[in-house]
Amino acid sequence: MVKVGEQEVLLVNHENTIYALNPKCPHLGLSLKSGKITDDGQGPVITCKFHQSKFNLKTGECAAWSQSFLGIPGTGIIGGVVGNMGGPKHSPATVYSVEVDGEGSVMVDISKTGQSGCKV
Prior knowledge:
This protein has one domain (2-119): Rieske Iron-sulfur Protein, CATH 2.102.10.10. It is built from 1 helix and 10 strands; from the N terminus they run E-E-E-E-E-E-E-H-E-E-E. The protein has one helix spanning 76-83; strands at 2-4, 7-14, 17-21, 36-39, 44-47, 54-56, 62-64, 95-100, 106-113, 118-119. Strands 1, 2, 3, 8, 9 and 10 form a 6-stranded antiparallel beta sheet that branches. A 4-stranded antiparallel beta sheet has the order 4-5-6-7, with no helix packed on it. The longest helix has 8 residues, at 76-83. The mean pLDDT is 87. Its cofactor is [2Fe-2S] cluster. Keywords: 2Fe-2S, Iron, Iron-sulfur, Metal-binding. Pfam families: Rieske (PF00355).
C-alpha cells in the first residue's frame, strides 16, 4: 500500500507485472489488501476476501459479484441481499496507470484510470 497525494493505492506484483488499484472494494468499500490474486484465464484478478467479488487487475472490470456472505457456502440468499448493498452491482474497481523507470522506481498516475499493469 502506498499513498499518491492523499489517495491510498494498492500495488500488486503478479508474475512480474505491477498493477495499481484503489484498495477499496466497489461492493462495500472493504479493503482489497488481503485479496487473493489468481488468473481466471481472462487475466489476473483480485478476490475480495469478505464477499468474493472479483476484479480484473488490468482493467478493473468486475469478473464476479458477491454471491455469498463472508465466503460461507450456502449463503447465496444473504449474498444476494448483501450483493445489492454498496456500489451498483458489477461496479468495476478503479485501476491506475503504472510505469516502472530504468532504475526500478514505480510511478502511479491516479489521473489515468481504466488500464493498469507494467512489466518489471
